[in-house]
Design goal:
Keywords: Signal. The protein is mostly helical. It has helices at 4-20, 30-38, 42-52, 70-74, 81-90, 98-107, 111-134, 162-195, 197-203. The protein is rod-shaped, with a radius of gyration of 37 Å.
Length: 204
């Protein structure tokens, strides 16, 4: 049986491969990016994109409560917010986790959106782990009468003959109890008299 650590590595590798094919970020899918874009005005979206390009983990003090200026002058206003967020995820945000996006959302005053995004990502991760690891996705591929499932191979066809087998076992057990057990009791009493003659003397 595989060790739990090996199984976890395989499970997370499957999750990584699935998410990697959809978006550049490790744990965001298009529906979650769409959720963020739907809760942003276009001005807030540009502000978020501008803060996402900041290299540091925490924003500088001048970013708090500020509005985008230089970035808005060179921004492409024809592109929707979801396209700009997707481009950032596939570009500078590639191989990053959603925590950075949630942090930037909180820092520009969108704490509710950040918390809802976190719940969505964690819920999606739990569903993926159940699907690929806990729910045994290969169980449907195993035949019904396979020994791997712990079922007897002829369970379905033995139903008619099962009572006959039980009756035969009861008959044999009755014969053993009436024929063998008295002999064993006689042999046991004889051995006891030979080993302990005082016991037989007391009884007589």
């Amino acid at each position: 049986m595989a060790r739990p650590s090996v199984v976890l590595v395989v499970a997370f590798s499957l999750l990584y491969a699935q998410w990697k094919s959809v978006t550049g970020m490790l744990d965001l899918n298009p529906s979650q990016i769409q959720y963020v874009a739907d809760h942003l005005t276009y001005r807030k979206c540009l502000h978020l994109i501008e803060t996402l390009h900041e290299k540091g983990f925490w924003l500088k003090e001048q970013w708090e409560g500020s509005t985008p200026s230089v970035f808005m002058q060179r921004a492409d206003f024809d592109r929707p917010c979801v396209i700009q967020l997707t481009n950032w995820c596939n570009g500078p945000g590639r191989n990053m986790t959603f925590d950075f996006l949630a942090l930037r959302l909180e820092e520009i005053g969108l704490k509710k959106v950040a918390r809802t995004l976190s719940r969505k990502v964690f819920h999606e991760t739990a569903e993926q782990l159940h699907r690929y690891f806990l729910d045994d996705p290969f169980e449907e591929m195993i035949p019904t009468r396979s020994a791997m499932l712990g079922k007897p191979p002829l369970t379905e066809k033995r139903g008619v003959f099962a009572p006959i087998g039980h009756v035969w076992e009861m008959f044999l057990s009755t014969l053993r109890s009436k024929s063998v057990c008295p002999c064993r009791r006689a042999t046991y009493s004889l051995d006891r008299q030979m080993l302990h003659p005082s016991v037989s003397a007391i009884k007589t």
